[in-house]
Amino acid sequence: MKNINNIWIKSIGIFLILFPISVFFHEIGHWIIYELNGVDSWISLQKVNPINPDKLTDAIFLNSLFGGPIITILIALISYLFLRKYRNSIWLLVLGIINAAFRIIPTTFGIFRAARTDNLGFSDEGNIALRLTDSVFLRLTIMLLYITFCIFLIIRIYRTFKFPENFKRRILLIITLCILTVLISMAYPILDNLIFEF
Question: Where are the transmembrane segments (predicted)?
């Protein structure tokens, strides 16, 4: 029983450490694209704000949209690949789950906007889909493929981690980590506005 409680406590503790770091690296992905294109910017909790928006073109904005999701998926994939070697690393399990689950809800909400014809998506992925094609079908396909890939990655990470034999609530732990990721990621924009609103 002590070992089981230990896994839960470690997982939640590690989650609380790695979640803000994961969000930060997601935003770094956007920031790098802006900086490489000469658009000075600063990072808040959950967004990158251009300092000189006059230098921001549609092409730079589109490229910057890719930066965050690419970093997030790369972290999830790298976590999974290392987890294949270090199968009992709870750090890699949590890091992989956070980054695989992090964009599912924003992308899901983005599907509803992607069906419309305006140019304002709900998420990075929604904005990417809106700017890549005028076809509603292709927008929805892009986003559904992305969500499917994220879910597939969560399942692969879950199946790769070597849980202790006596730990029976494996799926519950993964679902808990996914729900925590979703809930806290939904709270980040509110917290960001409270802290950085001028």
Answer: 12-34, 60-83, 90-116, 136-158, 170-191
